[in-house]
Amino acid sequence: MVRAPGRVNIIGEHTDYNQGFVLPAAVDKQMLFAVSLNQENTIRLVAHDLNETFSIAADEVRRSDTAWANYILGVVAQLQERGVAVPGFDCAFGGNVPIGSGMSSSAAVECGIGYALNELLNAGLDKMELARAGQLAEHTYAGVMCGIMDQFASLFGKDGHVVRLDCRSLEYEYFPFDTQACRVVLCNSGIKHALADSEYNKRRQECERGVAILQQYHPEIQSLRDASPLQVKAHHDALGDLTYRRCLYVVEENQRVEAACRHLLAGELPQVGQLLYASHAGLRDNYEVSSQELDLLVELARPRPGVYGARMMGGGFGGCTINLVQAEHVADFVAYMSQAYEAQTGIKLETYETSIVDGVSTVGN
Ligand code: GAF
């Protein structure tokens, strides 16, 4: 049996596929997998929470019409591409990572099955290769051109720490995060817009277009990671307003991740909180991946006592906001947010008070 957690991201949104910086952590919402080899040529899957099953020949793995199965089949295909012979196996899985909430339930599924098969087959892939396999499964079988943050966080999470990842070099550093003093509270808007995946892929293309234009002036710019806000501002006209705003958001967000790490180390949570608000404003106005409901949640949280900061989290177009809240104010915060959000939208608010846990591991024997 294997457990694979979902993740939060303190700051650094839409920076991973621009080879920039992110600051996620694995949290105590997780998927559980029971997996065994079955001595047949059949992969049999049971999605416990959906009460659905799926099976396919192990030597004929391909993309299926069953969306949830693709997260597993995509990883099997990635392992096969890496020379791992994957025989038939049985897998039952389920968990409590809310789907479509921006907490990476899909990455948890990819990382959990990748980890389980790697162990069962003694395939010897390291955790970074498993993260990459999960990311590419998402590209090829789910059609979302995601970065590596979610899979990385699910695999590399560490109890009591957030982790800053350099998405170019894949070097990472853990920073202690005391969730007893500062609670990480998620507010689930309850909305997931149908266009989320196509808009996500579009943002990635817009960033690539921006890089191609900036390169004409600064050949050393290989990704937005290499550009500064000044450079982007200097080429506003050449970029055109839309691409300009996309690029400006990304280069500013990269700087915010670096600043957030400095403030975290110095114990300066109010400053970290201000960076979260700035991140949200950029995601809303320049990157345009927020939604009315997410904006409302941030504005409701902002004046509440004990709130350091809040912003939308993950890919956007719905899902959760992340809120950094002083422990003694959490109960009041949750009560107020639930009442106010439902009063204004008619949607019942789900909130999650998360703790930060270790990444993927086996459970029991
Ligand atoms: C989604 C993606 F999967 C991540 O790679 C990342 O880009 C995130 O959106 C936005 O920061 O979760």
From TrEMBL:
Substrate binds at E13, H14, T15, D16, Y200. It catalyses: alpha-D-galactose + ATP = alpha-D-galactose 1-phosphate + ADP + H(+). Pathway: Carbohydrate metabolism; galactose metabolism. Mg(2+) binds at S106, E138. The record marks R7 as: Transition state stabilizer. PROSITE patterns: GALACTOKINASE, GHMP_KINASES_ATP. ATP binds at G100, S101, G102, M103, S104, S105, S106. Belongs to the GHMP kinase family. GalK subfamily. Catalyzes the transfer of the gamma-phosphate of ATP to D-galactose to form alpha-D-galactose-1-phosphate (Gal-1-P). This is Galactokinase. It comes from Hymenobacter saemangeumensis. The lineage of its organism: Bacteria, Pseudomonadati, Bacteroidota, Cytophagia, Cytophagales. The gene is galK.
